[in-house]
Design a protein that fits this description.
The protein is about 45% helix and about 10% strand. By secondary structure, it is of the alpha/beta class. It has 3 domains: about 1-45; about 50-155, no CATH class; about 160-250 and about 275-365, no CATH class. Strand 2 (about 115-120), helix 5 (about 125-135) and strand 3 (about 145-150) form a beta-alpha-beta unit. Helix 7 runs parallel beside helix 14 and helix 11 (about 230-245) crosses helix 14. It is globular. Mean pLDDT is about 75; it is low at about 215-240 and about 355-365.
Amino acid sequence: MDEVKNNILDAKDFAFKLREMVTLLEQRTRNAKIQEYLYRHVASSSIPKQLLCLALRLAHEHSTNAAARRQLPSPELVPALVDDSYFHFVLASDNVLAASVVANSLVQNSLRPEKVVLHVITDEKTYSPMQAWFSLHPLSPAIIEVKALQHFDWFAKGKVPVLEAMEKDQRVRSRFRGGSSAIVENNSEKPHIIAAKLQTLSPKYNSVMNHIRIHLPEVINFQKCYANISFIQSLQCLVSTFLFLQLFPSLNKVVFLDDDIVVQADLSPLWDIDMNGKVNGAVETCRGEDKFVMSKRLENYLNFSHPMIAENFNPNECAWAYGMNIFDLEAWRKTNISLTYHHWVEEVITNINHIVFKQNVTILSIQ
């Protein structure tokens, strides 16, 4: 300003210099935001030493301590696993500590803990630590079952569409093998988009546990999931209930809990909800309070320039919150959802580059 007052700079030069200063400050602000997001990503994706040591200690305990290998549940309680008079909850997780938090909060807030049955499903790697934890820290009078996916015959012997989709998805996911450095070096992206892309690199989204509980898009003739829901929501429902039916062929209703929630109330009233023949009950959400999470509208995940997408789906449709879903498996068995599911999974796999992935693999983190 002094230079302008002293006629050292004319208005044009002043405007040019001011623009340079503003651009420099904007760039510094952008770099600071991206650095914050990168540090946040590293902190959230890394495994703290204490947690790693916990899993290793539990695995050792499982191999050396008979008490850590005891049958869950005890033989006299096994009939409750298929008894529909109990409240059956499903938790799919490969994180022992997270599963413990969900289980403890569920039982502590239940008004009838003796009627709670929690089915914990994990992967082969985490099975020993998970069983050791719940064997050594029982939640009586609630009933806890711990199983690895590999314990199910249908998983070990047959083709699993979810796993086939995961394998074929690798060619799309490989675009981001450059890791976080490749993402943050993109100067054309807005900081919040970079933050969302960093989230997709989380190991959680590459875990089979994430894929067996939630997934892709709705089918046009799909009438039994929640009315007026989107393509993505319905295939979420398809995959989840398809797997639940194979996991729990004798149960009529289950509640799925994600491993990043804390139960704060008694959930037994969920069994009193009249779902009117629908398969899935969930809370619709378009955007949470987390500013780092991209909007959950379809326009952010599907390529609406593709005719098949544009003709059948609404870009403003919202996804649902999958932290807690209730599934009516009896209603599911009355439908032909499994055929519809297979059709759409194959459709998505065939056209995966053109239809689903508008921006990286964020769709998998949300769905």
